[in-house]
Structure formats: structure tokens, C-alpha cells
Amino acid sequence: MTFAEVVAAIGGKMVVLTETADRKVRHVVGSDLMSDVLLVDEDDMMLLTSLASDQVLRTAQIVGATGVVIVNDKPVPDSMADVARELGLSLATSNLSKYEGCVAVYKALNGITT
Amino acid sequence: MEERPFAEKVPRSADLNEQPLVILELIQRLKVRDVMTTELLVAARHTTLREVQDIMKQIKISGVPVAENGRLYGLISIDDIIRALEGGYIDEPCQKHMSTKLVVLEDDMPLSFAISYFDRYRYGRFPVLDRNQRLVGIICQRDINRTLLVELTHELRRMEELTGGSSAPQDDYAGLYFFREFPVSKFDFENAGKAATTIKQLLQERSFPARLIRRVAVAAYELEMNMCVHSLGGVLTCQVSNGEVEIVARDTGPGIADVEWACRDGSSTANDWIRSLGFGAGLGLPNVKRVADHFEIRSQEGEGTRVRAVLVLASENKPKEESQGSGGG
Fold it and tell me: What's the domain range around B211?
């Protein structure tokens, strides 16, 4: 599943759509702690976080994430959308909590419908 | 002469900016200590000007530092000797006639800094001190010319090996060289992370192995954020040479009281505000150690901190086909 497909499957809303939205997602990381995200050694991962800051995107770009979903329906600052465009990184929002979001992504990636 | 603070940043002159890229990279990479003369003949304060004149004749130099036990007291130039001969005081001790307000360089400064000083002050030589303010060398323009010629010859040889008739394979990174320097300001979260992003892009453009790029980017990013969050500001550098990527973070303070503790997982002095931004969990330095092949940290409370992480290209596989979009890594 691509990042764009995962966002659609969990009922999320795309804020910045870039080429990374077409990349396959194989792992999901849910964290508000960027040093934890930097510890993750998986390619093709997407990040779910309730932190709406520029550094989230820079961290995601450093680890080569496919995209970032801001959970809890948090508003995305204009500056964050600008940074996402600058980095060429897809950015979406979701009204799910971080935990619910991770479960929803897991289900979507594994074809679980219940 | 006017005394100047050692750490003062001298803006590049227009001439420096117009240098070819290879020379610019060389003068950024080389330190003053790589160029300076370390075999010094020095005079003591009680040495007579005549004896200094003999030293000048003997080794054909036009300036002699006056120093005792590594401490620099002054400098006698050929002009001082001429004045002494004209004034009839050539047999007096140099202590009375030496220049004491000196412009000096530090051995850890980039060569570009020294070149700026020659451009700015028009002196023939500068004494070089180490971080403990001890005299360790002297540098003149001839030293710079000689070193640059040697380094340029090496650089040309490397380029020849890469471009023509060489048996070196295309994926041999041993001949690649580049150097970049990024200033990092305290609490400048708007720009924090840009240096690491740029370093990642530079390595991607040169088709470095994806896993190595990721490790370098993580090390650079953690060090950059550390400087932004904890230091008074500093400089992050990235140098690729001899098959290694070296990331160095050097700040101006306040230093770390217990380095061993700071390198342990979970050790942090960050406040709630920093934590609210997603940082300050005490994982930064351990994370840099994790991704680096060599890791060094030097710090003292009240002074600056220098962290060096080296990642060896040979420790990674050759570049592999990217199965993902161009933004990946």
C-alpha cells in the first residue's frame, strides 16, 4: 500500500501531497519523541505523531519516511506545510488518536477489515 | 600591532570567494597546524638583538618569536634589527625592543582563517598558539604556498585516478573529497535540522550507499539538535575524504560537566519546553555513538564541547538499487 492509500484507508486528510505519497509503506511508527524516531532502522515507514512542528518533518526526512500523519485532528501550522513542500515530504492529518491510528494503519496494511 | 581575540571570525575577502572550488575546499579542510612550521628557533627575553640577527642570518628568516617555556612574550622582526643597527642598540636584550602586542593564530583554526589574516594585517608571519596559549609554531605565506602545492598535487592525482585510465572502480569512494561547514545557533528551531538535511542531499547526489546516508544523517541531525538545544551555538562540519565521512560538532559552551553520564541512554538536562518539541530524552549522544564507527567527545564545564563521529564507507555495502522514490534514503 502506498502512503496515499494508507491515509485514505484510515480516513485521513492529505495536507501536502508529494512524490513520497506513492511510496510503499511497510512499517508504521507512532511517537512524539523525535530521538525515538531516529532510532528506528526501518525503511519504508510512515510516522504518526501528535506533535505538529517543523522538526517532526525534518526528523522524518532524515530517516527517509514515506510521510507524516498528524493525529488527534491537530491543526497544521502554515510553516509546517511549507517545510513539507520544501522537503518534498507528504503530510496528512487524522482525527484518530495516535494509538488508534497505529491500529488502523496496521489493519490497512494487513487487509484486516474488522 | 593590535591584539585580537583568537576566536574572532574574519569575513572572507572577495578574493577568497573567487578561488576555484578545489582550493576553497582545501583551505577549509586544512588547519593552521597542518601548514605551520613547528621547528622553531626562538629567542629568550634576555637574548641580545645581535644574537637574534645571527639566528635570522643562520636560517634565513625575517622574524623570530621571543618565548620561554612555551610562553610567547613578543616578536623581533627584521625591521626591529635594522632600527637597532641604526640606533646603536644592537647589543641590548630584545625584551626592550620586541613587539608585544601581537596578532596570533590558533593551531585549530582553518587555513582560510590564516589567509584572511594575511590579507587583513599585511604581516609576514603569525605566531601560532595551541588551546592552552602555548607557542607551537609560526606560519608565513611561504608555508601556505608550499602546503597548497603539495595538496593540489595529491588532489590532481586523485582526480586523474577517478577520471582517466585508472583501474579504480566507479564505486570506490576513496578519491572523493568535499567539506561543508554549517553554523548552528542556540534555540534556532526554525533552521535546526537544515544542516543535516543538506548533508544527506549531498551524499545522495554522490550516490553513497543508502544505509550509510541514513547513519550519517542521523548522526549529523542529533549533533545539530544537541547544539541548538544545549549549547550557546557552534559549527557543524561534514568532511568526506579517504573513504570516510566525518561529522564534527564544535560549540562555544557551556560544556558538559560529566561527559560519561551525558553519553548514557536517558541522561538529559533538557527542560519541559525542549521536551515538548520532541527532544531532550537523553538519546542524542548515545544515538550518535550507535550509528558511528568512531566516536569521540571532548568537553569541559565552562568551555566548549567537540564531538566527532566518523562513519567508514567500507563498513557499508555498495550502492543498491533504490526500490523507493527519489526522496528516500
Answer: 169-315
